[in-house]
Amino acid sequence: MTQLHTDNIEITEIEWIDDCFRLEQKKWGTWESFDKNGKSIITALTEESCLNGTRFYLKGVQDGWKDCKSVSHEGTVGGKL
Hints:
Layout: E1 2-6, E2 9-14, E3 21-25, E4 31-35, E5 40-44, H1 47-62
Antiparallel strand pairs: 1-2, 3-4, 4-5
């Protein structure tokens, strides 16, 4: 765990999971994961699904999923029906 201090006041203790992200419960009861830069990664309804979803996403990024191109499809039907 890492303790953050500002002006000799302890703010919070942070538990880094897999030494790369942390989980935080939000006021509405949802869970959110954050990287070490504070960027939000995953939001989920339970702590377990947030943990598992974040690990799955980060593994995908590590394996190169972020380099995949998205494909768009036309949402209208052409021709006369």
